[in-house]
Amino acid sequence: MNIAGVDEAGRGPLVGSVVAAAVILDPNHPIEGLNDSKKLTEKKREKLFAEIQEKALAWSIAEASHEEIDQLNILQATFLAMRRAVEGLSVQPEKVLVDGNQVPKGLTIDCEAIVGGDATHAEISAASILAKVTRDRQMLELDQHYPQYAFAKHKGYPTKAHFEAIAKFGVIEQHRRSYKPVRKALGLE
Predict the structure, then answer these.
(1) pLDDT for residue 79
(2) Which residue, 189, 19, 182, 7, is CA-closest to 100?
(3) Taking the CA atoms of the chain, what radius of gyration do you get in angstroms?
(4) Domain spanning 3-142, CATH class
(5) pLDDT tens digits for 60-75?
(6) How far is CA 16 from each of CA 43, 101, 141, 179, 180, rounded to the nearest angstrom?
(7) Does the reported pTM lie above 0.70?
(8) CA neighbor of 148 nearest in space, from 133, 122, 167, 132
(9) Beta strand pairing status for 95-99 and 110-114?
């Protein structure tokens, strides 16, 4: 049975898109060391990212933009990214395992939500790695354009350094305008 694991990265940050990935692993090409992406070092995630793309039966990475997050809300934007990831798979899964306590609406495939699934199901672990590495790379790229915000360091999360940069330099186009700290910085709260 082809089982797809699905996970996301980037729900909490104040800037950028939310990224989701879907992965169907190949039982004939096992991948050692899969785990929740947050429990792995950046170096290990990068290594596994390439290995997953090489060995998985199918994989897909999708996102919902900061504009879509502001229009829909973060939960619905996350579900949109997850649906896009599943629909982008080159192999149709028979079942989808989603990290978390809810599944995205609109998928016609049997779905199951698994809290903490990124640490217990290899397919979800693989998806969490693809999503996190992709999201982190986006933040590194944004850091190239806006080094004063230190996105490479905090990845857009609401840290003291990020708040200080917003206070000093204002918000950029990629900031999520529906998020309270950004609204506050814009004088909307």
Answers:
(1) 97
(2) 7
(3) 17
(4) alpha beta
(5) 999 999 999 999 999 9
(6) 23, 24, 11, 12, 15
(7) yes
(8) 167
(9) parallel
pLDDT in tens, 136-145: 999 999 999 9
Q: Are 3 and 97 in contact, with CB atoms under 8 Å apart?
A: yes
Per DSSP, the residues of the chain read --EEEEEEE-SS-SBS-EEEEEEE--TTS--TT---GGGS-HHHHHHHHHHHHHH-SEEEEEEE-HHHHHHH-HHHHHHHHHHHHHHT-SS--SEEEEESS---TT--SEEEEETTHHHH-HHHHHHHHHHHHHHHHHHHHHHHH-GGG-HHHHTT---HHHHHHHHHH---TTB-TTSHHHHHHTT--
Token duo for residue 186: 């814009």
Q: Show the tokens assigned to 96.
A: 């989808």
Q: How far apart are CA 62 and CA 135, in angstroms?
A: 10
